[in-house]
Amino acid sequence: MEESNGTIEELSGDLSRYIETRIEHAKLTGISTGIELSAQTLGAILLVLLFLIGYFCFICGLAFFLGAKLGGTSMGFLMLSGIHLLLFIIVLVLRNTLIIHPFREKMIKLFFKK
Asked: Chain-wide mean pLDDT for the chain?
């Protein structure tokens, strides 16, 4: 009987260590995934900010150029505002296809990457 008690105690200890190891592995995997998601998000935010700065400068220059050609700076800015309003409406209508689904797929791939 003593031999079976020792075996049961060893098995119980092994099971306990196995469960602790699995919990630690899950924690480390979650931390790793969180860090990867954070790094990807930070990189994307930085790229978007840099793009927006360049885009804003380009649009201002284009508005002034068009304003000079059309006879008034306000006409250039008004024309570009109309174009941007049209683009906004298109993106608003197609946001699920253009933005939400691709973003969701990218996040799922990053989160469940093995």
From this structure: 88
Write the pLDDT tens digit of every residue in 15-39.
Answer: 889 999 999 999 998 888 888 888 8
This prediction has a pTM of 0.62
Token pair for residue 96? 């699920």
68-85 burial code (b ≥16 CB/10 A, e <16):
eeeeeeeebbeebeeeee
Instruction: Give the span between the Cα atoms of 60 and 48, in whole angstroms.
Output: 18
From CA 49, how far away is CA 4, in angstroms rounded? 67
Q: What are phi and psi of 94, to 5 degrees?
A: -100, 20
For 106, the token pair is: 């990218």
